[in-house]
Design brief:
With about 400 residues, the chain is mostly helical. Helix content is about 80%, strand content about 0%. The chain has two domains: about 190 residues, MFS general substrate transporter like domains (Growth Hormone, Chain: A), CATH 1.20.1250; about 180 residues, MFS general substrate transporter like domains (Growth Hormone, Chain: A, Up-down Bundle), CATH 1.20.1250.20. It starts with 6 loop residues before the first helix and ends with a helix.
Length: about 400
């Protein structure tokens, strides 16, 4: 007798389209924040010193580090959609504090709320999307959907950069802040449209059990552990480098007004990398190593050349790293169990956060003595090392398969 399809699979295409639309809208709202390009100016105009601003950024990062894993465990134990709704509301509250009562204390509290909001969504989003796709038999579309979502997020950031100037000229920090708060509220509304069919258990005991089960899976399953480590290895360095791309562009000798146009070139490369995720979904370990090697060499050569035209190579490198970031997430989602999916995704996110902090420190040490071009080139080294490890693993897998056939 032929089994009848489950309700989820029967409505698979329609459910997948709805999920995709919600994911794309969420990705755009999350990054369409007009405060991004001007909040440092707000801090400066309020009278904050450089060290005070640095302490705010450190507080932001520390909040993310401390809450990354607990929020993932909470998402698995309670509700992933709930966290995706709460996250933008916390961020909106923080942005409102910045423009209503601008002061060091308000900025600090705002960064804590922003860091907490980001941590709530990290892990929960990937886990929810993958599980819903798997429920309808469409897990193979995860790479394509997430790649497009990342591309839309980048497009939203670039659009916000373009609109921030005119809106600021019209209404100052109040207008830019109000627009950012409204966008966050829109993101929370969009998150209510995410489907969630899993039935998590609640309670303190299940929370600790969820964390323990996730960590045991990572410790005992070699493939899970490898996929878990690959995410920060691919994501952390270039995720920190993007903060310094304006300085790299300025070092090519162009006028400050030309820098935004060069940044558009670089981020167009990252957008292209996201859009290739679906086509490159089945890239083997050897191909992944080639991707990282090519991207690392393009980054080093483009940065050391010191010319505006050479930044096209940096754009290609960012495209490769963005593609690798999406593919690393795909590999992780395929290897972990659905009950602890958000937990282990958040563990990978914690590794990325720590890698970002290490990259900031290393970059500052190198750039202070040698300049931004050299610092970017040195930042390519971790990718070459990761590529070597992947290539070695690929050769080992080929030898093992050959031995099995020979035996």
């Amino acid at each position: 007798m032929t089994p009848s399809p489950t309700p989820g699979r029967a409505h698979g295409p329609a459910a997948t389209r709805r999920l995709a639309r919600t994911l794309y809208a969420s990705a755009f709202c999350d990054e369409f924040v007009l405060l991004y390009p001007v909040y440092a100016l707000l801090f400066s105009d309020t009278g904050l010193s450089v060290w005070q601003m640095a302490s705010l950024f450190a507080l932001w990062s520390l909040t993310g580090v401390l809450l990354e894993v607990p929020s993932g465990v909470w998402a698995d134990a309670v509700s992933r959609r709930l966290l995706l709704i709460l996250g933008p509301l916390l961020t909106a509250t923080g942005f409102a504090l910045w423009v209503l009562v601008p002061s060091y204390g308000a900025f600090a509290l705002g960064f804590v709320l922003w860091g907490a909001g980001g941590a709530l969504g990290s892990g929960a989003l990937e886990a929810l999307v993958y599980d819903e796709l798997e429920r309808t038999g469409a897990a193979g579309q995860y790479a394509r959907l997430m790649g497009r979502a990342r591309a839309l997020g980048i497009a939203a950031t670039m659009t916000a950069m373009g609109l921030a100037g005119p809106v600021f000229a019209w209404g100052g920090y109040d207008a830019v802040g109000a627009a950012s708060v409204l966008t966050c509220l829109a993101a929370a509304v969009v998150a209510t449209r995410f489907p969630e069919h899993r039935t998590p258990s609640a309670g303190g005991e299940s929370w600790t059990a969820t964390l323990r089960a996730g960590l045991v899976e990572a410790r005992t399953d070699r493939s899970v552990r490898g996929a878990l480590l690959l995410v920060p290895a691919v994501t952390a360095v270039w995720g920190a480098l993007d903060e310094y791309t304006p300085l790299l562009a300025l070092d090519t000798g162009v006028a400050p007004g030309t820098v935004p146009w060069l940044l558009l070139v670089i981020w167009a490369g990252a957008t292209g990398g996201s859009l290739l995720a679906g086509a490159a979904e089945r890239l083997p370990a050897g191909g992944f190593a080639v991707l990282l090697t090519g991207s690392a060499l393009a980054l080093a050569v483009g940065a050391l050349a010191g010319t505006p035209a050479a930044l096209v190579l940096v754009a290609l490198a960012f495209g490769g790293f963005q593609l690798a970031t999406v593919l690393a997430d795909v590999r992780l989602q395929r290897r972990i169990d659905d009950s602890g999916r958000a937990t282990l995704t958040s563990v990978a996110g914690l590794g990325t956060e720590l890698g970002n902090l290490a990259t900031y420190g290393a970059y500052a040490a190198v750039a202070t003595h040698t300049g931004h071009g050299t610092a970017f080139a040195v930042s390519a080294v971790p990718y070459l090392l990761t590529a070597l490890l992947l290539a070695g693993a690929a050769r080992g897998a080929v030898r093992a398969a050959s031995d099995v056939r020979g035996g």
